[in-house]
Amino acid sequence: MSIKILTLTTLVIYSVIVSQSFMYILSLKQVQLSLDANTYMSVRKLIDTYMRANFTSVVYAALIANLVLVISTIKNPSSLLFITAAIGFIALIVDALLTLKGNLPVNDIINTWTPDHYPTDWADFRAKWFSIFQYRQIVNIIGFVSLLIGAVFGSK
User: What's the half-sphere exposure (Cβ side, CA atoms, 13 Å) at 83?
Assistant: First the structure.
């Protein structure tokens, strides 16, 4: 029973992370691509501020819950739940690395811009941010769906 509770907990926390990917697929990317430079800067800075303040704890919680699930299911390394939990955990690590090495440095640059002082190639920074985030979306969706498959088909 504890594996089921741990699996559910991991799925719920992971769903918060993957929901960001789905919201960008559904609308947020198009919204931000439609913004002019000043509006984009304002939106990006606000999102970055609140995501750093609130999303970091979600990422840590997902990593911890998923790691505990992997450790709890390692007794049977050929089980579907262990394999999919491991895939989900690896996906979370890849997402965190892409965030730390890709999106956050771009955010740091954008955070230095002002309405009067921003580069003429500001849209290239936006494109770079979206390019990195697209990889994160793929990784997050693969990790979440994998974990979901393990929870539905691998749990006894």
Answer: 7
Q: Alpha helices of 74-103 — where are they, by DSSP H?
A: 80-98
d(CA 77, CA 7): 16
What's the pTM?
0.93
Q: Which two tokens stand for residue 90?
A: 């690896």
B/e letters for 17-32, b = 16+ CB within 10 Å, e = fewer, are bbebbeebeeebeeeb
d(CA 103, CA 4): 34
What tokens does 76 get?
């049977």
Q: Closest by alpha carbon to 81, among 89, 62, 17?
A: 89
CA 121, CA 123: separation in Å to the nearest integer?
Answer: 5
Query: What is the predicted pLDDT for the residue at 1?
Result: 64
Residue 33, pLDDT score: 95
pLDDT digits (tens, 9 = 90+) for 97-141: 999 999 999 999 999 999 999 999 999 999 999 999 999 999 999
How far apart CA 141 and CA 97 sit, in angstroms, is 16
Rounded Cα distance between 115 and 137, Å, is 30
